[in-house]
Amino acid sequence: MSQEVLLKIYGHIWPAGPDLHEALLTACADALPAEELSVTLDGDLCRLSFEGVYFPLQECLAVLQEGIRPEHQGKLDVLDLEAWQLTRHQFVAGRIETSSAPLNNVLAYSGH
After folding, report:
1. Domains of the chain by start residue, with CATH
2. pTM for the whole thing?
C-alpha cells in the first residue's frame, strides 16, 4: 500500500555549483519516500522536486540560508496538501523571502 502524498515541493536556484548541489542532496537525504526526491544540477541551475509524506524543509532552508549569495535567484515552493496551503521561499538579493497563501487563492489566480 502506498502512502498518500501530503507534500509537493518544487524549486530551483541559480547560479549554483557542485558544492551547493551536494549540500542540498545531503540536507534532503531524509525525505520520504526517497525515490520521489530529485535534486539535479544542469549547468549552473539546481532543480529540486519532491512528492511524498515528509521533507526535511528546515534542513534544506538552512543550507540555502548559509549558501545563498546576492547573485542567486530562484524559489522553493512547498504545497502542503493536508493544510491546503502554498508557501513560497524566494531567493532575492542574498536572502530568503517567505510568503504563504491558501491553495484556493493560488488556483483562482492561475485561472483553474
Report:
1. 7-110 (3.30.70)
2. 0.90
